[in-house]
């Protein structure tokens, strides 16, 4: 192995910080197995119990109407488009109730930037869900929605955050990060806020007691250096959260790690959108990036891979590249599915993926606290209803007249 790469890998595996330049070198030049071993060493030191977590939640979309027209998005419809829709509150609550019946602990309420939806809409949405189902954690929306609602209502970002937090929002999703550096972001989402602004909203939320996740969408034509720049921008903001006492990067705090709790890279899906035909990230690129992320983020507690976009085999392999969490079963997901993500799973399969990778599966809550550790296969859950579904507007033959849980074919 190249002596310089060897030395960086060793330092990172031992818990030392690596620079963005070193991360780029590892990403492009480190041997695949060496990279994975170093990332796995970090994972083992953080989580010596060998537990890999998963979550049961449902992504519920309140509207597909959006004024932001991101080029990679297959989910949205422009205002007045005949396929635009918004769910009434009863439908949203009905879906929350179904999710709870199936063992969900969290809902992710996600939707477009509807021109009429200001802070008041989200206050009603979150308070209605909390009132009906106080046991459900609301991990929802992202900085883009917060900026949009603040603009519609004419209030500051901080006011919008405080009001939706008071209404019941428990955690902010890492949605809308896409690519944070300016060049690739403008190319795929010219009307979206800048990456710096996205991070500013997250920092404001962290300061006001709302922790979040962070994501990245790979594969729309960004360079390797821009991928590393994306995680550099997030790490810098997390450094601030740690320095100011909003986040505990080292261990699980009693109320969960603050700031960015986890990093979740996923791959762009190329169907039904204006970027159709762009190169996607390969599986190897994805796995290498997952490993580099584990080595680079010495201040973010968890690393989640995206089996939904990369497939279950890659999801399982990622557990050997530093990943400690497989995310959600996603009782319902429509946004990424609209762009072509076809992978589906269920509770038993997800548990099996973790166990056959040599790890101990555990259901977690939003803050990564273990709810059930599946030590003994004989005690594994057997509820076949706990499975992924989609009911997309953009899928061939899809329609939204009736939106029951539609089993994927
Ligand atoms: S990704 Fe979000 S903001 Fe962009 S067009 Fe789709 S729904 Fe709108």
From TrEMBL:
Output the Gene Ontology terms for molecular function: 4 iron, 4 sulfur cluster binding; 7,8-didemethyl-8-hydroxy-5-deazariboflavin synthase activity; iron ion binding; oxidoreductase activity, acting on X-H and Y-H to form an X-Y bond; transferase activity, transferring alkyl or aryl (other than methyl) groups
Q: Which Pfam families match?
A: CofH_C, Radical_SAM
Q: What class of enzyme is it?
A: oxidoreductase
Listed SUPFAM superfamilies: Radical SAM enzymes (SSF102114)
Gene3D superfamilies reported in the protein's UniProt record: Aldolase class I (3.20.20.70)
Coiled-coil region: none
State any GO BP term from the record.
Answer: menaquinone biosynthetic process
Residues that coordinate or bind S-adenosyl-L-methionine: 72, 178
Per the record, the pathway is:
Quinol/quinone metabolism; menaquinone biosynthesis
Query: Which reactions is this enzyme annotated as catalysing?
Result: dehypoxanthine futalosine + S-adenosyl-L-methionine = cyclic dehypoxanthinylfutalosinate + 5'-deoxyadenosine + L-methionine + H(+)
The protein's Enzyme Commission number: 1.21.98.1
| Residue ranges occupied by any Radical SAM core domain in the UniProt entry | 52-299
Q: Which PROSITE patterns match?
A: RADICAL_SAM
* Cofactor binding annotation: Binds 1 [4Fe-4S] cluster. The cluster is coordinated with 3 cysteines and an exchangeable S-adenosyl-L-methionine.
Biased composition of type Basic and acidic residues is found at 376-387
Q: Which InterPro entries match?
A: Aldolase_TIM, CofH/MnqC-like_C, Cyclic_DHFL_synthase_mqnC, F420, FO_synthase_su2, rSAM, rSAM_sf
Q: Where does (3R)-3-methyl-D-ornithine bind?
A: 306, 328
Amino-acid positions noted as binding [4Fe-4S] cluster in the UniProt annotation, renumbered to this chain? 66, 70, 73
Q: Which UniProt keywords apply?
A: 4Fe-4S, Iron, Iron-sulfur, Menaquinone biosynthesis, Metal-binding, Oxidoreductase, S-adenosyl-L-methionine
Q: Annotated region Disordered: where? A: 376-409
The cofactor(s) it depends on are:
[4Fe-4S] cluster
Family of this protein = Belongs to the radical SAM superfamily. MqnC family.
Job of this protein: Radical SAM enzyme that catalyzes the cyclization of dehypoxanthine futalosine (DHFL) into cyclic dehypoxanthine futalosine (CDHFL), a step in the biosynthesis of menaquinone (MK, vitamin K2).
Name of the protein described by the UniProt record: Cyclic dehypoxanthine futalosine synthase
Q: What is the scientific name of the source organism? A: Winogradskya consettensis
């Amino acid at each position: 192995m190249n002596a310089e790469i060897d030395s960086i890998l060793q330092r990172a595996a031992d818990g030392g910080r690596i620079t963005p330049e070193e991360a780029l070198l590892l990403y492009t030049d480190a041997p695949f197995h060496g990279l994975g071993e170093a990332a796995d060493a970090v994972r083992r030191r953080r989580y010596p119990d060998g537990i890999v977590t998963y979550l049961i939640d449902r992504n519920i979309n309140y509207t597909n109407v959006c004024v932001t027209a991101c080029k990679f998005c297959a989910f949205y419809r422009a205002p007045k488009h005949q396929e635009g829709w918004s769910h009434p509150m009863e439908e949203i609550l009905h879906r929350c109730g179904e999710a709870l019946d199936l063992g969900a602990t969290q809902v992710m309420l996600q939707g477009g930037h509807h021109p009429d939806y200001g802070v008041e809409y989200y206050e009603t949405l979150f308070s209605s869900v909390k009132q009906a189902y106080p046991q459900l954690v609301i991990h929802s929306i992202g900085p883009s929605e917060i900026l949009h609602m603040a603009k519609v209502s004419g209030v500051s970002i901080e006011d919008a955050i405080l009001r939706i937090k008071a209404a019941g929002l428990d955690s902010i999703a890492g949605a809308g990060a896409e690519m944070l550096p300016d060049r690739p972001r403008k190319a795929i989402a010219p009307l979206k806020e800048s990456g710096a602004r996205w991070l500013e909203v997250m920092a404001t939320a962290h300061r006001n007691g709302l922790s979040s996740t962070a994501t990245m969408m790979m594969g729309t034509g960004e360079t390797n250096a821009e991928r590393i720049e994306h995680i550099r921008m997030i790490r810098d903001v997390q450094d601030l959260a740690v320095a100011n006492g909003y986040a505990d990067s080292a261990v699980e705090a009693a109320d969960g790690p603050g700031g960015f709790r986890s990093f979740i890279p996923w791959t762009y899906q190329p169907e039904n959108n204006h970027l159709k035909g762009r190169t996607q990230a390969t599986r190897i690129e994805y796995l290498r990036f997952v490993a580099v992320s584990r080595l680079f983020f010495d201040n973010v507690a968890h690393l989640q891979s995206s089996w939904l976009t990369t497939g279950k085999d890659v999801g399982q392999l990622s557990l050997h590249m530093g990943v400690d969490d497989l995310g959600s079963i996603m009782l319902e997901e429509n946004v990424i599915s609209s762009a072509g993500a076809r992978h589906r799973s269920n509770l038993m399969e997800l548990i099996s993926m973790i166990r056959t990778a040599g790890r101990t599966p555990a259901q977690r809550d939003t803050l990564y606290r273990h709810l059930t550790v599946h030590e003994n296969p004989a005690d594994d859950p057997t509820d076949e209803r706990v499975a992924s579904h989609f009911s997309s507007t953009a899928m061939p033959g899809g329609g939204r007249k009736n939106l029951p849980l539609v089993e994927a074919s």
